[in-house]
Design goal:
3-stranded antiparallel sheet; 123 residues; alpha+beta; 8 strands
C-alpha cells in the first residue's frame, strides 16, 4: 500500500508539472513591443495587428532589422511597400517585408530587434 501511494504522489507531481508547463507555454503568444523615445513602451499581440504602414515618410529614415544575432538588413523607409505578419506552411510565425518589388520573410523567433534611424548626412 505504501508503494502505491508513492507512485500516485509521483504521478500527481508529474501531472502538475506538465500542466504548469503547458499553461506557461500557452500564454506566450508572439507579440511586438514598441519602445518609445519618452521611455514608455506598448506591446501588441501579433494577432491584433492588421498591417504596419508609414505615413509622412521621407527619404532620410532607415529601418534596420537585426536577426539571427549577427545579420542586419537596412532599408530606406520610402522603399518599403508593406510589412505584415503571417504563419508559413510550417506553422511558424513570420514577418513579411515587401520592398523594392521583392518579398523577404523572417522567422519571428530569429528577429532580435527593428530600429528606425535618421540617415546621417556628412557635410
Amino acid at each position: 500500500m505504501n508503494f502505491s501511494k508513492l507512485i500516485m504522489k509521483k504521478l500527481i507531481i508529474l501531472f502538475v508539472v506538465f500542466l504548469a508547463s503547458f499553461l506557461l507555454y500557452a500564454q506566450q503568444e508572439p507579440s511586438v513591443k514598441f519602445y518609445l523615445l519618452d521611455g514608455s513602451s506598448r506591446q501588441f499581440r501579433i494577432l491584433e495587428i492588421d498591417k504596419i504602414s508609414f505615413s509622412s515618410f521621407n527619404q532620410n529614415y532607415l529601418m534596420k532589422l537585426y536577426y539571427q544575432r549577427a545579420n542586419t538588413i537596412i532599408l530606406g523607409i520610402s522603399t518599403i511597400d508593406s510589412l505584415n505578419f503571417s504563419i508559413d506552411s510550417n506553422r511558424i510565425n513570420v514577418l513579411n517585408v515587401f520592398a523594392l518589388g521583392s518579398h523577404k520573410t523572417y522567422n519571428l523567433f530569429e528577429i532580435d530587434s527593428i530600429t528606425f534611424l535618421p540617415v546621417e548626412i556628412n557635410q
